[in-house]
Here is the input.
Amino acid sequence: MTGRKQSGVALYRQVAQDLIGRVDRSELAPGERLEPEGRLAERYGVNRLTVRRALEERAGIVRTEHGVGSFVAEPAVRHRIDDGEASLSESMARRGISVRHHVLAVAQVEPASVEFRFVRYLEDEPWSIGEVQVPAALAPAGWDGSNSVFAAMSAEHAITIKRAETAFGAALAGPEEAGWLEVPVGSALLEVRGFNTDQEGRVVASFAHRIRGDRAEYVVRLPQ
Amino acid sequence: MTGRKQSGVALYRQVAQDLIGRVDRSELAPGERLEPEGRLAERYGVNRLTVRRALEERAGIVRTEHGVGSFVAEPAVRHRIDDGEASLSESMARRGISVRHHVLAVAQVEPASVEFRFVRYLEDEPWSIGEVQVPAALAPAGWDGSNSVFAAMSAEHAITIKRAETAFGAALAGPEEAGWLEVPVGSALLEVRGFNTDQEGRVVASFAHRIRGDRAEYVVRLPQ
DNA sequence: GCAGATTTGTTCGTATGTATG
DNA sequence: GCATACATACGAACAAATCTG
Here is the structure.
């Protein structure tokens, strides 16, 4: 970083650009730890705050942990939602990717619905924070998070769950989400919301997931 | 804002929370201008930097313009992609929403492809920045952005364009995107990528859009 | 379990550059 | 040109989380 100012490009972007370059050129491998902010600041000859801005800028490529350090993030997981599986868990399990859930809350809501809130982990990495609402009559009794809510539902009751409508949006991670997903506040999240039906078209679940944008990609192939 | 520190919640988040609250309670209407950062800082009794962090935090709800001011953003537009239309432009036009494009670049790429880069405006508000690649043989000759690239293609050649595969992801706005979309750097973007085929299943286009997360929502209804 | 070192997180004050009207 | 308002950058300090001995 010789140019310092003058170039017309903000310093923090120059730093961000250099970091990206080092990742692209594989000088920094996924999972690898970066030098502390202070040291990076010295190395680039800028203020520590400037380094921090650069790291924020690259929130998708670099992940930081309070009191620990910054690390190069891993690439994304692609997930198809047109393969007939209603839940991500089964698709991933079939691909040999371990899925587990940490149950945050199980609450009775409305007349007769139960809401599950949970964090989903893929390969022991936090991947999404989700909410699923199902009719109380169909709620899986002792869901322990080892499989999906839907799988538990299907097992306890004789129903097949299908995707009906799915909506995609983008959002920024708030404090709580950031905490569970171990990403900085303000990271990009893919928001996936929708509802599911059983084999006879009855709505049996609605869901909302906020998924780490640096990990997630949903693929839809529409029928011709 | 009485609590100042102590509460365990970062000051900038308290400010951000208060701003969100004022928007939710409709004390601030969409499009309305906020007080200058300096004045907000005084009012909340914090440093101007702290106000700036709060505004960044709420990039989806508040939009700032260099040298002008900060404004409350407008709510989102829902878009269905399973209605047979290959392009958003036609769907929106049918809903009475004006769509136009600002062409950033038209470039010859690869052996025989043409790439269009453009900013899409809905109701004269920047909505997405996109790239479309089509075979040179099918490229619309004098696309002026008044309709979609696909519409122009269909008109010039006798083909029907269908969606084939679409992938969704989330990303943060980089400097260039932020500039065109008139959002702060680091805002949430919905990334939609994929390709299209003609009526006979031949790939005739690939596309990548980065859409303002505060404006966009894509809805997919999968066939039963 | 605790104390200290390390590292990131937050906040302030201040200065200067740049875009807009 | 000038005033206003946002953009970038620096230095300093302390808080909070984590790790180590």
